[in-house]
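[SOLVED] Predicted holo structure with zinc ion

Edit: marking solved, answer below. Original request kept for reference. I posted the sequence and ligand SMILES and asked for the 3D complex as structure tokens.
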Amino acid sequence: MREAVEQLLLPAECLLCRALLSFRNSARLVCDVCRHRWRRVRPPWCARCGQPEPLFGRCRLCTEWPAAFALARSAVWLDGGAREAVHALKYGGLPRITTDLAAAMVGLDVPGLDSGLLVPIPLGRARLRDRGYNQSERLARALGRRWRRPVVDLLVRTRDTAAQTALTPEARLANVAGAFETRNAEGGTRNGRTPECSAFRVPSSTFERPLVLVDDVFTTGATLAEAARALERAGAGTVSAVTFGRAVVPDFT
Ligand SMILES: [Zn+2]
Ligand SMILES: [Zn+2]
């Protein structure tokens, strides 16, 4: 409802360059020109984590990942307009920009997608309250519409983690350790620490399907790896991940 009203009140212009959007694209927030400027992440990359290979030696970014976490891919590098678009999603109160972000992610190649389920990365309670929505869940739903795949809220955040932005890769790992739990068939979580999940029950057979984590940004992959670890503990065999943006890490580019 709020989104419908917002669409009526806001002039149909591109959020990034202010060009008027055609009637056909009036539900969008970003024009075709700006969308084509987003810098796509392309191979050669590490087959597993999708990061450009380092100049010397093997990729170290994904060596500590749990065995079930098979693959991560991102659509575009997080700079310029792509960074602005994610900012609008997270801090600008514009969840419908996920339509534009999902359009850029549609071509990402994920194994087992035909039978797969999309799993958004959950937000901590405090941040969900502040933002009013979970940006990853909105993104998963927009992508699910394009891919015609169901979105299943399998994960619960057991605690609010500190903002990751200023942390080193090692500190990020420690920061997210044990941050996720999966929902179970009884409507609680497997460790029973998070009681308020009773609205949603997950049969254990769900975890046998290929699971695709969805998040807005891949930085070091620590959050996704921790989420994959929780899914693996619940019996998941194949977990992959897709994100809209990938942070430009100077060491790797
Ligand atoms: Zn534009
Ligand atoms: Zn790698």
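OP edit: Strands lie at 69-77, 117-120, 155-157, 180-182, 211-218, 239-246. Thanks to everyone who chimed in.
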